Amino acid sequence: CNTSSLSYPPSISTQTIIAILNYHWMLIFLCTACLFITFIIVLYFYKQQKHAQSSKVAPANVIITSSASQIDDLNDPISFVQLSLPPPPYTSVFTNISE
User: Fold this and answer.
1) Domain chopping of the chain, boundaries
2) What global pTM score does this model have?
3) What DSSP letter does each residue of 44-82 carry, written as one string?
4) Which pLDDT tens digit goes with each residue over 30-51?
5) 2: Cβ contacts below 8 Å, ≥ 6 apart
């Protein structure tokens, strides 16, 4: 029985891996660097988007009344927007009216 005629599947040895790394080390380094930079950019934009969604912006309070719109025979409700900013002082309102 001749055992040398049997075909064994080729195995990757440590020397083969070292030879591949020595020959393609620049390509492997560039691919790793590109993947790392892409990961950092995606993480940056993800954190920006998450921060923009969680930022506390006071919404405008909308009060909808349907009875005030009967003047012109319109059935659309009128919306009064109450802003979250405080009203201006009365002195500036009266000076704007007098001008």
Assistant:
1) 11-54, 61-98
2) 0.36
3) HHHHHHHHHHHS--PPPEEEEESGGGGTTT--SPEEEEE
4) 999 999 999 999 999 999 888 7
5) none
